[in-house]
Design a protein that fits this description.
Layout lengths: L11 E4 L6 E2 L1 H14 L8 H4 L5 H12 L5 H18 L2 E2 L3 H10 L3 E6 L3 H10 L8 E4 L11 H10 L6 E5 L2 H9 L3 E5 L8 H7 L2 E3 L7
Helix pairs in contact: 1-4, 3-4, 4-6
Length: about 220
């Protein structure tokens, strides 16, 4: 599948970040496991699916209620930002052909945005350390909207900033909650392979309009 085979009316590409542009999903499971251990709480494999698509505030509320963490929501968020910032800056790498695809889009005058559940500080640190922040016309996080994924808010807000109609947008996502958000926004969606969500392959195929292993398939 090549990009020209997709919706011929598209003018805008919107990306999720974690697991879609960068290989970072491993990091969050490690952070969750380490954080719960601080309070003698037990990590379980299904946890990552339960919090899929939540913004950082929603996740903190979930942790506090589910695990009875003796910290305020604000304190938990500060803890996680501190734990994750250096990893985003120093350890998280681009997924295959990400830089090449972004450059291709820019050369073809396609507007490019990020719509993520992550916090802006970590997003910018990650994009800057991987030298791709120059490609993005806007960065929208769940902090900018009322509802996180699978609600369509982040994608609709990003499209509005860029002056694009939903039908002009293509969304790249790696997990079902994000795919659902793109579909709910009325946008064409492409599921991206990620090792972390490999067990969800069938669900991703069913939900998305297309599926790719990496961005070289679109070049």
């Amino acid at each position: 599948m090549k990009l020209k085979q997709l919706n011929s009316d598209f003018s805008t590409v919107l990306f999720d970040l974690d697991g879609t542009l960068v290989d970072s999903m491993w990091m969050w499971a490690d952070i969750d496991r380490e954080y719960l251990a601080r309070f003698d709480k037990t990590f379980y494999p299904e946890l990552q699916r339960e919090i899929e698509g939540m913004n950082i505030n929603e996740t903190a509320v979930f942790f506090k209620e589910r695990f009875d963490i003796p910290r305020t929501v604000e304190e938990m968020i500060r803890d996680w930002v501190e734990m994750s910032y250096s990893k985003y800056r120093d350890e998280v790498c681009l997924k295959p052909y990400t830089a090449e695809f972004l450059r291709f889009l820019k050369e073809h005058d396609i507007k490019i945005g990020i719509a993520t559940s992550n916090a802006e500080k970590m997003v910018r640190a990650c994009l800057e350390s991987n030298s791709i922040i120059k490609y993005f016309d806007t960065i929208v996080t769940a902090d900018d909207v009322e509802r996180g994924k699978p609600s369509p808010d982040v994608y609709l807000h990003a499209a509005n900033i860029l002056g694009s109609r939903p039908e002009e947008c293509i969304v790249f996502e790696d997990v079902p909650a994000g795919i659902l958000a793109g579909k709910a926004a009325g946008m064409e969606t492409i599921a991206v392979y990620d090792e972390f969500s490999e067990k969800l392959y069938e669900e991703k195929i069913k939900l998305a309009d297309h599926y790719i292993t990496d961005y070289s398939e679109l070049l």
